[in-house]
Amino acid sequence: MTSRTIFALAVAAVMVGCDFGGTTFTLYRNSMNDETMRIHVASFDATASEKYNRGNCEQARDLFQAQSRAKIRFWCEKGSYKK
Fold this sequence. Notes:
Distance between the termini: 43 Å
Helix content: 25-40%
Structural class: alpha+beta
Order of helices and strands: HEEHE
Radius of gyration: 18 Å
Strand order of the largest sheet: 2-1-3
Largest sheet: 3 strands, antiparallel
């Protein structure tokens, strides 16, 4: 094997482990004091399908929202956590 082939295989192996937000969903909430604040609650990045991660995020969102007596809003976004 040439050094180029080994390098290409190494890069491919690293990229297989990276999601780049393709199937990851992140659950956020705002603050009682600031409706525009984005607070990270959880990330859903199982190696299963996008549908699986989105479904789990939405289910968690619904459960949190049902428990919240305050005016806190929960929502899911596709991709990894972003400030």
